[in-house]
Amino acid sequence: MPSKITRVNPDQLHTPPGYHHITVVEASRTAFLAGQCPIDPAGALVGEGDINAQIDQVVANAMIALGAVGAEPSDVVRTVIYVVSDDRSVLGAAWERLTQSPLAPAFTTASTLLGVAQLGFQGQLIEVDLTAALPG
């Protein structure tokens, strides 16, 4: 049985570009995924200096992690996206690529996009943190 997930945008708040201000979950189980990084199965950074290649690896890793707990992108109830940049156009381009990826339904929920100074792996440009309401 799927979790009941309700996404809300109050009329008194601005209309967000693709995500919702509030996500309410009635679930019996929740999965908190570690930040998904652009690291391949051998532990190597993918796409040094290429944020698009890194986004694609992050998406692939997130899809595997969600699948491992029986979840899909539509089960995601909270996302936090970290991008190493202080340039709004870079942040916007990262958002655009993520929302056009197989993981796109995850970003229709309560989402935060942050520009940061650095992330955990040398050369890492993006990380995505996901929380999912598990079905059944």
From TrEMBL:
<protein>
    <submittedName>
        <fullName>RidA family protein</fullName>
    </submittedName>
</protein>
<dbReference type="InterPro" id="IPR006175">
    <property type="entry name" value="YjgF/YER057c/UK114"/>
</dbReference>
<dbReference type="InterPro" id="IPR035959">
    <property type="entry name" value="RutC-like_sf"/>
</dbReference>
<dbReference type="GO" id="GO:0005829">
    <property type="term" value="C:cytosol"/>
</dbReference>
<dbReference type="GO" id="GO:0019239">
    <property type="term" value="F:deaminase activity"/>
</dbReference>
<dbReference type="Pfam" id="PF01042">
    <property type="entry name" value="Ribonuc_L-PSP"/>
</dbReference>
<comment type="similarity">
    <text>Belongs to the RutC family.</text>
</comment>
